[in-house]
Design a protein that fits this description.
This protein is of the alpha/beta class and 455 residues long. It is built from twelve helices and 21 strands. This is Polysaccharide biosynthesis protein.
Length: 455
């Protein structure tokens, strides 16, 4: 009913309601503890590695004690120090989904509910305490403030908000604006060649100081703008903060070139994973103040590159200790330090979701990075998506630029795939005009529907 009423009322009232909704949300995020946390994280930016690990150890003692005293799931856990963390069991997504209420320390009424997108399974519900929510936003805002951002600065936001009406589509208006907080929300559900022109032209008119949101959407806009001769005004946008999806160097290059600014990456999750932040030198840092990061191989042994296991300090509403979050990262050597002054350990690469892989019976798993690199030495491929419904077969949907794409590009693209999946796999290319996104508004480069067949 609320949705139907929203679609019937005038745009200026819709935008007023969005501002009121945001005001209520911001009251929770920026409450009495928020300023204290901001001061703390600003003060702690120059902590030594030793001081950071001591801070981390104290927070671990606190979260484990709290979890044991307030949840059914952790009740029988041993009391251990951080050095013996590996003696505690791993927590899988399936266990969390199956017994979620065994993890809750507060009621839904007293907490703040966060839901995962559910693109790789049933959606999860996580509860945050108001204090934890304020701490997380203080940490995130401390990161973004290093590049000039504060709430109230003019921002273009690209996320899974469904705010448009039929009237908007008829008028080629793919955004709604919270004028009070200076945020314009652009739809991520209408990113097609038919509509990209309107996104680019409105962004040029709006001239946001910051762009935040799904990098796959921002990429499509940047590519369209560059290919069609649009010039984004210089010295307008100070920084771009991608969210919710992995990025690679090709994406970064195209986006930064069109918008004439730098992109600063971050890692977190709807469940409340600890943060990874990019610094001014372009290096990724584990944020030890936010939690504990373990990297394990397929045999659950410590590794430099592999599955990410997290223990979060900011999820007291739903404690997550040794949680297998379903992502993978690659670490730098522990002895390495960054020249930016941040002494947190370095991350070589965020590899993305473990579920986002193509499986070859001949060569095994091909991760997202290797999938995206199949574009090497090709020209005219605008976008592609790989769908695997059978062990020995993949379908690749391709959007191409007819003026540039050629038989040579097709041969090169297929050769790149053969290098990865081997000689025996069937590869079907299907040329399409559009590739639909997910219900969340995100774009998935790989849709693997046979994970249950792979041991």
């Amino acid at each position: 009913m609320k949705d139907k009423i929203f679609r019937l009322i005038p745009v200026f009232i819709q935008e007023l309601l969005i501002a009121i909704f945001n005001y209520k949300a911001y009251k929770l995020r920026y409450g009495s503890k928020y300023k204290e946390y901001r001061k703390l994280f600003r003060k702690n930016r120059t902590l030594t590695r030793g001081e950071l690990t001591k801070f981390q150890s104290r927070r671990f003692d606190k979260i484990l004690k709290f979890a044991k005293e307030n949840t059914k799931y952790y009740l029988e856990f041993q009391t251990v120090k951080i050095q013996n963390l590996v003696t505690l069991p791993l927590l899988s997504k399936e266990n969390l989904r199956k017994d979620t209420t065994d993890f809750f320390t507060i009621s839904k009424k007293a907490g703040i509910v966060s839901k995962t997108g559910g693109t790789t399974g049933k959606s999860l519900e996580i509860l945050f305490t108001p204090d934890n929510m304020q701490e997380r936003f203080a940490m995130l805002d401390d990161f973004r403030s290093r590049f000039g951002y504060e709430l109230g600065k003019k921002t273009a936001w690209f996320s899974g908000k469904s705010l448009l009406t039929e009237r908007d589509l008829k008028k080629n208006r793919f955004w709604k604006t919270d004028h009070w907080h200076k945020v314009r929300y652009y739809s991520t559900f209408h990113i097609s060649q038919r509509y990209l022109k309107y996104y680019v032209e409105d962004l040029i008119r709006y001239q946001p100081e910051f762009l935040v949101g799904f990098p796959s959407t921002i990429l499509e806009i940047a590519k369209y703008g560059a290919e069609n001769g649009y010039q984004f005004p210089e010295n307008t946008t100070k920084a771009i903060f991608p969210t919710a999806e992995s990025i690679n160097e090709d994406m970064r290059s195209i986006i930064e070139s069109f918008f004439k600014t730098k992109m600063y990456n971050q890692y977190a999750s709807s469940e409340g994973a600890p943060f990874i932040f990019e610094c001014s030198e372009g290096r990724l840092h584990l944020e030890l103040q936010s939690g504990i990061f373990e990297v394990l191989d397929d045999n659950d042994q410590p590794a430099k590159s592999g599955r990410l296991i997290v223990t979060s300090f900011t999820t007291e509403g739903t404690p997550l200790i040794r949680y297998d979050i379903g992502d993978s990262i690659s670490l730098e050597n522990e002895e390495k330090y960054c020249t930016c002054g941040n002494n947190n350990p370095l991350v070589k690469e965020i590899l993305g979701r473990i579920d986002d892989f193509v499986y070859s019976p001949e060569n095994g798993k091909i991760n997202l990075g290797n999938v995206s690199n199949t574009l090497k030495d090709t020209h005219g491929i605008k976008k592609f998506q790989v769908i695997q419904d059978e062990l020995n077969k993949i379908k690749i949907l391709l959007i191409i630029d007819q003026a540039v794409y050629s038989e040579k590009t097709e041969r090169t693209f297929l050769h790149n795939w053969r290098d990865r999946v081997g000689a025996n796999m069937t590869i079907d290319l299907e040329y399409v005009g559009e590739i639909p996104g997910e219900k969340s508004g995100k774009f998935r480069m790989v849709k693997n529907n046979i994970k249950h067949l792979i041991s």
